[in-house]
Amino acid sequence: MMVKSILRQFLNQEKAINSRNVAIEGILKWMKDHPVSFLWLIWILTLCLDFLIRFLGSTPFAPWKIILWNFIGWGLINQFWFFVFLPNVLFKKKWKLESLILIAAFLCYSLIKLSLIVSLTHYDIVYTSFLSNELVRSFQFLLNTSAIWGFYILTMSLEEYKKMEIDLIRLQVEHQSLQLSPHFVLNMISQFSASLLSISRPLFHSMNLFTEVLSYSYKNPRQENSLAQEIHALENYLACQRYRFGEKLQFNAVFPTVNSNSRELFLPKWTLMTLLENVFKHGDCFDISCPCILHCVLSEKNDEVFLSFVISNPLGSDHSKNSSQFGIDAVRRILSFYFSDQFQIFVQKSNTEFNILLSICYGKNSENRITG
Q1: Residue 102 contacts residue 81 (beta carbons within 8 Å)
Q2: pLDDT tens track for 179-223
Q3: What residue spans define the domains of the chain?
Q4: Residue-wise pLDDT tens digits, 100-152
Q5: Is the Cβ–Cβ distance between 227 and 309 less than 8 Å?
Q6: Cβ-count burial of 161 within 10 angstroms (0-12 exposed, 13-18 middle, 19+ buried)?
Q7: Residue (of 194, 230, 193, 191) closest to 213 by Cα position
Q8: Which residues are paired to 357 by β-bridges?
Q9: Does residue 314 contact residue 284 with C-beta atoms inside 8 Å?
Q10: Does the pLDDT of residue 2 top 70, yes or no?
Q11: Is 246 left (phi over 0), alpha (psi -120 to 50) or beta?
Q12: pLDDT, tens digit, for every residue of 233-266?
C-alpha cells in the first residue's frame, strides 16, 4: 500500500502535504496564543537534548543545583529578550535601558552561577575563560530565541494580513451593496429608450448607443474582452458625444474594420477608452482650425499583428490645472501586466497640443488571443 501511495503521488503529482495543514496551523496557533508556554517548552526540550547528548557521550553531569539555575536563569533572560528587548529595540527603537537591564541580568546570572560552581565543585576556575564561555553560550541561546521570535512575529503578521484581507472583502461587499444595481440602471434606460421610439427614432438610436457604452463600462474586468469590443465601445462613445455637441464637435476618427481577427485579439477593458476620455476631459474639441484626431489601425507585418492607436488634440484652457496623467499611467500599468514588453506608449505635449501613440504587438502565436 505504501508503494502504491508513493507511485500515485509521483504519477499524479498528488500533494504529500495535508491540504488542511491541521498540524502546522495548530502549532502556529498555539504559539501565537501561548507564547510564554511555547518558549518554556522549547527551553525544556533544549534541556532534554543537552541531557541526551551528555548521556550518549558519557559526559559527567553538573550538580543539579547548577543545572536548575542554568534552566531558570536563562529561561528568564530568554523571556526578557523575547518579550521586551527585541520588540523595544526593533519596533520602538528603544535600546539603552533595555541593554542595561540585559547586561545586569547576565552579570547577576553569571555571579550566581560562579558562586554555585565554587561552592559545589572543586574546579580551578579561570575567570576570563569562564566569562568568555558564558558569553558564547549567551550568544547561542539568544540567537536561537531570536529565530523563534522571528517565526512568532511572522505568524502574527500573517494573522493580521488575513484579517486585513477579510476586512477588505467585507468592505468591498458592503460598498457594492451601497451602489445602484447596474441591471436596474440598464433595464430602466432600455425601458425609457423603448418609450422614445414612438416619439423620435434618432433619439431612440442615440439612447441605445449610450446604453451599450454604459453596459460595457459595467462589464467585469476579469471577463474575457476583445479588441473588437473595445473599438465598438469607442465608436458608440464618439457617437454619443456627437449627439451631445452636434456640429460644434471637431473630431476626426478612423477605426479598423471589425473582423474575425479583431474579435480574437485580447485587450483589457477600458484601456483605449481611457485615452479617448482624456481628450474630452482636458482637450479642446471645438477648434475648427485644429480638430481632434483619432487613428486606430490594425496591421500585419512579418506575420505579426500590430495595433497602432494615435490621438492628437489641442489642449483646453484648464489642462495644466486638472491633468495629472493618472489615466495614462493606469493604462501603462495594465498593459504592462498583460503584454509585458510587447507594447509602447509615447506621449508628446506642447503648450498647445497633446499627442499620444500606443503600439501593441500581438505576435505570431496565440498568446494574446481572446483568452488573454
Answers
A1: yes
A2: 677 888 888 998 998 898 889 998 999 999 999 999 999 888 878
A3: 2-177, 250-363
A4: 998 999 899 889 988 888 888 877 777 888 888 888 888 888 888 888 888 88
A5: no
A6: exposed
A7: 230
A8: 310, 346
A9: yes
A10: no
A11: left
A12: 999 999 999 999 999 999 999 998 877 777 889 9
Name the CATH architecture for the domain at 250-363: 2-Layer Sandwich (3.30)
In this prediction, residue 162 carries a pLDDT of 77
Amino acid at 118: V
* Measured distance CA(58)–CA(55) in Å, rounded: 5
Q: Name which of 294, 215, 237, 224 is nearest 263 in CA terms.
A: 224
| Residue 45 grid cell | 526540550
